[in-house]
Amino acid sequence: MRDALRRTRGHRRRTGKGLDAVQAVAAVLGSFRVSAHEWRELPVLADRLELSIDRNVPRDAAGDPELFVTALVMELAEGTVRIADCGHPPPIAVGPRGARPLDTVPDLPLGLRELRPEPSPTTEHRLSPGEALVVYTDGISEARSAEGVFYPVLERLDERFRDGSAVDPHAVVSFLEEDVRTWSPKAEGDDQAVLAMTFVPRPAD
C-alpha cells in the first residue's frame, strides 16, 4: 500500500482547543494502537475508542461537556475498505474515471455516543484498479471562497483526475493542498489534513 499524508494550515476554530481536546485525541490514538490488534469488528473497536474518552477526559464542571472526536474507523484489505463513520466526512475514491463518493452511514462522533447506544453501522466498498482512497478533514471541505462558498472536494478531484490514468496518492495530496489554498487564500478555518492511499497488488506467486 502506498500512501501520502499532508497537514496544512494550523488555524483552529474556537471549539476543539485546550488541554481537554489534546487529552481526548491522545486517548483515542493510544486506545486505537492497542485495541486495533485485539478487536477486529469495527463497531466494537469504535466502542473501545469511545470508552477511552470516557475514562481519560474529564466530564465534570472543569471539563468540556460537549467535547467530541470525529473519526473514520476503517479496515483495508485486498482492495476492499470497510468503514464505520463516527461523524467524519466520508472518504472519496479517485481513479482514472474521476472521483466517486464512498457512501457511509454517519454515526455520532466519539464522545457523544451515549446519545445513541446502538453499535456503529458499517459500509463496505471495493476499490477499482488504479483508484486512490482519499480521506480528509472538514478543514478541507469547509474552506470558504471569498464569496462564502465551501470547497467542493468531490467535484474538484473529479475534474482534476478524470484523465484515464492511474492515480498517484502524492499527486492527490499536492493538488488538494494547492487548490484549497487558491480557493480560500485568506480564510481561517480548521486544521487541514489529507490522507491518500492506493493498493499495490501482490505478485502472483
Number of helices: 5
Low-confidence stretches: 7-15
End-to-end distance: 18 Å
Number of strands: 8
Structural class: alpha+beta
Order of H and E elements: EHHEEEEEEHHHE
What proportion of the residues form beta strands (DSSP E)? Answer: 15-25%
Instruction: Output the strand order for the largest sheet.
Output: 1-8-7-4-5
Largest pleated sheet = 5 strands, antiparallel
DSSP helix fraction? 25-40%
Radius of gyration: 18 Å
The chain-level mean pLDDT equals: 82
User: What shape does the CA trace take?
Assistant: globular
Write the layout of secondary structure elements.
Elements: E1 2-7, H1 18-35, H2 42-56, E2 71-77, E3 80-86, E4 92-95, E5 98-101, E6 122-126, E7 132-136, H3 138-141, H4 153-161, H5 169-183, E8 193-198
Antiparallel strand pairs: 1-8, 2-3, 3-6, 4-5, 4-7, 7-8
Helix pairs in contact: 1-2, 4-5
Labels describing this entry:
globular; five-stranded antiparallel β-sheet; three-stranded antiparallel β-sheet; 30% helix; 8 strands; alpha+beta; 5 helices; 205 residues
Descriptive report:
By secondary structure, the protein is α+β, with helices and mostly antiparallel strands. Helices cover about 30% and strands about 20% of the residues. The protein has helices spanning about 20-35, 40-55, 140, 155-160, 170-185; strands spanning about 1-5, 70-75, 80-85, 90-95, 100, 120-125, 130-135, 195-200. The strands form 2 sheets. It has a 5-stranded antiparallel β-sheet. Strands 2-3-6 form a 3-stranded antiparallel β-sheet, covered by helices on one side. Helix 4 crosses helix 5.
